[in-house]
Amino acid sequence: MKPHAPRWLNWLMPPLRGIVAARYWLMAYVLLILLPVSLLLYSYYQKSAAILEQEVTRSMLQTLRQTGINLQYQMDRVRDTSNALFMNPYLYKYVMGPDTDDPFDTVKGLRSLIGAAESNDNVFRIRLFVEDTKLYAGEKINFFPLANLKARSWYPRIVEAGGSMVWTGAYKESYIDKGDAYVLSSARMLRDPDRYDRMIGVLVVDMTEQTLRDIIGRVELSEQKLLYITDREGKLIWHTDKAMIGQPAPLVDEAAASEEEGAVKFAHGKDTAYRIFTTIPSTGWKLTAEVPAAEITRQAFTLNRFSGAAALLGVSVLFLLLVFVLMAFVIQSMNRRSAARHPHDSPGRRGAPGRVWGKAGGNLNLLERSVDHMLHKVKELMEETYTAKVQEREAQSRALQAQINPHFLYNTLDTINWAAMGRGLTMSAR
Q1: Is the dihedral of CA 350, 351, 356, 360 positive or negative?
Q2: pLDDT surpasses 80 at 289
């Protein structure tokens, strides 16, 4: 006895037989529909991902540019205060005036000027560095000896600028009345109007570093962003980590360093990231944001939800169209085969009994007529086969009867003969 096949194999055999029977159509489906659609989806994904990454970085650059404009506005307000003092003739009068027995008049006049300038919300403190011989130079609130400034790393740039405004990076400063604070300073040299080659002091306008931190803190690029500002020499003048201020900036491409703004992709350890930067015009500083590429991809995917749904719908429609095209090829192939098998079919020709073929109404009508004709043919063949089987069995029965009847008659006569003979022997015995 043959072992019974497992039940699961019995379930799988009909579909497998159907798949084997339809292998040509499956091959056509894979080559004409599945493979092109897969390539189309892959190409769409690659191109859309690249385009969306560019859009996200462009949006981030626009946000960074707006932040740079906001920083520029705050720094311009400090510059306006510095310009107002720099152009005020009373400032030079008080600074260049001779020392008197009572220096309080000079201090009072200077305080009046400085107090009006410090009313600007962006100004944290105005400091005036003058010659050490001035009696009020030791006041150390608004007035300081010039020698204290010469130790600063940015003092040579002030002298080199020759009266133009110079911005310092963020640094820590100690104030007698306010304690320690991180500030950025706008500094410029004051020259003697009568002797232009003679420096009479340095005007310094301080802006708190918190002003920059508040503006930059409102930048919504990514949860994993890193923001910093570098000067023209590539040194960090502001960083979210204050310990990094004054350190060299991360290396950038030379091409990117020469650009005013842009986005550069770079290796960040085992991962990749984007460095997005813009330039603050008045200072030449570069405001830079570093964002992981994975974060940009995530934002691009978020933006692509609706466009991706539309694309998926479009691909689905295209998929259905390709299915219909394949069905058209299949039907056309079946029509050709049907026409080849029934070349004499014509409109008005009578096919099966009781059925008249109508005019051709298209491929589907031809297919319908071909299938109908085939069904009638199969039915006729089954009837002919059944009739032939019945006739064959009737012939066999008649043949058996023809064989049995003589044999039965012979046996009957023989039995009678033996019976007669037996009876005759009995009679003779009597």
Answers
A1: negative
A2: yes
DSSP 12-61: HHHHHHHHHHTHHHHHHHIIIIIHHHHHHHHHHHHHHHHHHHHHHHHHHH
DSSP 219: -
- 130, 145 contact by CB (below 8 A): yes
* Rounded Cα–Cα distance for residues 358 and 155 (Å): 105
Lookup: tokens for 357:
């073929």
E strand spans, 192-251: 199-208, 226-230, 236-239
Gap between the Cα atoms of 260 and 279, Å rounded: 5
CB neighbour class for 295 (10 Å; exposed up to 12, middle 13-18, buried from 19): middle
Which ranges of 120-261 does DSSP label H, i.e. alpha helix? 155-161, 209-217, 254-257
State the average pLDDT over residues 233-240: 87
Q: 277 pairs with which residues across the strands?
A: 262, 288
Do the beta carbons of residue 357 and residue 349 sit within 8 Å?
A: yes
In Å, what is the CA distance from 101 to each residue of 104, 110, 111, 195? 9, 17, 19, 26
Q: Say if residues 307 and 48 touch (Cβ distance below 8 Å).
A: yes
Are 169 and 235 a contacting pair, CB within 8 Å? yes
Question: Which pTM was predicted?
Answer: 0.61
Q: pLDDT digit string (tens) for 58-82?
A: 888 898 899 999 999 999 999 999 9
What pLDDT, in 10s, does the model give residues 393-426? 888 887 777 777 776 777 777 788 888 887 765 4
| Angstrom distance (rounded) from CA 185 to CA 173 | 10
DSSP symbols for 73-140: HHHHHHHHHHHHHHT-HHHHHHHHSPP-S-THHHHHHHHHHHHHHTTSTT--EEEEEE-TTSGGGG--
> What is the Cα gyration radius of the chain?
52
CA angle 206, 211, 217 (to 5 degrees): 150
More confident residue, 27 or 289: 289
Chain-centre distance for alpha carbon 416: 111
